[in-house]
């Protein structure tokens, strides 16, 4: 299932351009030195990936708890269904429910720290801008975290989110730089691909939970248990 993280990250980068793109275009970079500029942007991107990885550790730990309770298959099915629901329900409808409200104070502090880093021009500040940006609420990250939790393992959970973050980098770096001079008329068309991909990944997680003995897609109940056991050692 790790391959789905990289693929989902790549497609989600279209969403990232719209949400994180403005932040990326505001970071203090040296526009007169192309090489230095790419290094600075890469530092920012690595900060984002680090944030995603740390969240993957947390949700991988939660998933490991479900595994120890013998609920790994049920969790995979629930995660898959949730992914499909998120893809089907209109974004405006989901926006009516503020899932981040319980941690609003933490998010407020993250935004404050994010704003302070824009006043600096060091590589450390660029990394922190990416780090704090990665912790801000994002629907695509929520979906990826569901996947990380379904890995039933701390290491695999963190790896899932690392691959998700790496998948967002190539297209985002190119588009963010290109968007400064060009309008992408096809951007909205690509946005339509995201829900379809989420549904496909959700179906994969549901199939995985059913243990239908389909190699690489839906291992049997016994194989799924053995794989999870091996991942824990």
From TrEMBL:
Source species: Flavobacterium difficile
InterPro entries cross-referenced by the UniProt entry: UreH-like_TM_dom
Q: List UniProt keywords, sorted A-Z.
A: Membrane, Transmembrane, Transmembrane helix
Tagged with keyword Ribosomal protein: no
Asked if the keyword Ubl conjugation belongs to this entry, the reply reads no
Q: Where are the transmembrane segments?
A: 6-29, 49-69, 126-148, 154-178, 190-210
Q: Which Pfam families match?
A: DsbD_2 (PF13386)
| The Urease accessory protein UreH-like transmembrane domain, residue ranges | 5-204
- Name of this protein: Sulfite exporter TauE/SafE family protein
| Source domain of life | Bacteria
